[in-house]
Prior knowledge:
The chain is an alpha+beta fold. It has one domain: 2-Layer Sandwich (Metal Transport, Frataxin, Chain A), CATH 3.30.920.30. The protein has three helices and three strands, in the order αβββαα.
Amino acid sequence: MGKLAGFNYREVVRKLRGLGFQFDRRAKGSHEIWWNPETRARTTIPNHPGDIPEGTLRAILRAAQITLEQFLTK
């Protein structure tokens, strides 16, 4: 288990909001698009029960232009 293990949808959204992201719109299925008006970064988050897989969370952070340290400290 890595540093990004054990984060569910609510925890990820709480951290993204702390970094300036806001809900933009619903996407296909149970996915949501969040964006940051300051950095103009956009990312898609799955709204599924349970924890988000580490690889998926890394892809979310990469698309959001957030470093691992920024995410973990918020």
